[in-house]
Automatic annotation (TrEMBL):
Gene: SMKR1
Organism of origin: Terrapene triunguis
Region of interest (Disordered), ranges: 1-24
Annotated Basic residues bias: 1-21
Phylogenetic classification of the source organism: Eukaryota, Metazoa, Chordata, Craniata, Vertebrata
PANTHER family the UniProt entry points to: SMALL LYSINE-RICH PROTEIN 1 (PTHR37932)
InterPro entries per record: SMKR1
Protein's recorded name: Small lysine rich protein 1
Length: 64
């Protein structure tokens, strides 16, 4: 069964254009975001840092 060398799927050589989805604004104070921040943050400063509000002149974290 299936001794033929041709596959049933046809491969298209044309390039497909990817359509970019519009970037939606995310509310960082939404209930879902606050619940996520509650579980990942140790304190208020860590919560703000995760959200992109870093302290000025703070030392940069090194990656693991």
């Amino acid at each position: 069964a299936g001794k033929g060398g041709k596959s049933k799927r046809s491969k298209s050589k044309g390039s497909r254009k990817k359509t970019k989805k519009p970037v939606s604004e995310v509310d960082i104070l939404s209930p879902a975001a606050m619940l996520n921040a509650y579980y990942i943050s140790h304190n208020a400063a860590a919560c703000l840092e995760f959200r992109g509000f870093n302290w000025p002149d703070s030392p940069k974290k090194k990656g693991k």
